[in-house]
Amino acid sequence: MKTLLITVFLIIGVIVSKETKAHTRANISSIVTVIVHRLDGGLSRATGFFVDERHIVTNYHVVYRRKNSAIILNIDGVMTYGLVVYEKPKSDLALIELNSHKRGRTPFNLCKEDTIKEGQRVRLISRSPGVKLDFMRIKEVTDYWTVLDQRPEPGDSGSPIVRGYGRDKCVIGVVTACQTLEDITIVINVQALRDFLK
User: Fold this and answer.
1) Which CATH superfamily is domain 31-98 in?
2) Where would you tag: which of 125, 144, 157, 163 has the fewest CB atoms within 10 A of its CB?
3) How much is the pTM?
4) What backbone torsions phi and psi does residue 141 show, to the nearest 5 degrees?
5) What is the DSSP string of 68-105?
6) Cα dihedral value 82, 88, 89, 90, nearest 10
7) How would DSSP label each residue in the chain?
8) Across 5-9, 99-103, 151-155, which has the greatest mean pLDDT?
């Protein structure tokens, strides 16, 4: 009987693990590199993520004053273009729309505000240029900002901050800035993101 129970648990564990890994891969494919031409002729790279099959969120300061302008996107190694269709400077958020979309992407769910607490462990997921995951803890939660206990790196602007795993994974906010003196990351709260997407 013990052997049977162990076998059943192992099978269930394998199935859940496969589902979780598949969902994780799908979410990673929903994170993109946003490439912007600078005034000096160079290129700046930041991160964005799908909120539905056709729209990508990033920071306003990444696509500064480029509404209705084409932005280069690297999606799973494929270069394409998107159009900046909406900006909200005060929230440091911008929305990019693809001319066409690839079906099968898994946009991130947004966390409920009242479930975000100080001390929770979260992940910064960036794609500038490769996939990078940094584990951090929530240091402080205010009405508009969430503060994390480590600072991001160049290219992390626009990255989602994610809590949970598999199908329970959700976004608590979007990286906007860092404070180098204190080594912290400043994150736009999920409520501001939700209001922006209305």
Assistant:
1) Trypsin-like serine proteases (2.40.10.10)
2) 144
3) 0.80
4) -125, 125
5) T-EEEEEETTEEEEEEEEEEEGGGTEEEEEESS--TT-
6) -150
7) -HHHHHHHHHHHHHHHHHHHHHHHHHHHTTEEEEEEE-TTS-EEEEEEEESSSSEEEE-TTTSTT-TT-EEEEEETTEEEEEEEEEEEGGGTEEEEEESS--TT--PPPBPPGGG--TT-EEEEEEESSSEEEEEEEEEEE-SSEEEESS---TT-TTPEEEESSGGG-EEEEEEEEEETTTTEEEEEEHHHHHHHH-
8) 151-155
Q: How many residues does the chain have?
A: 198
Query: Is the model more confident about 176 or about 153?
Result: 176
190 vs 107, which has greater pLDDT?
190
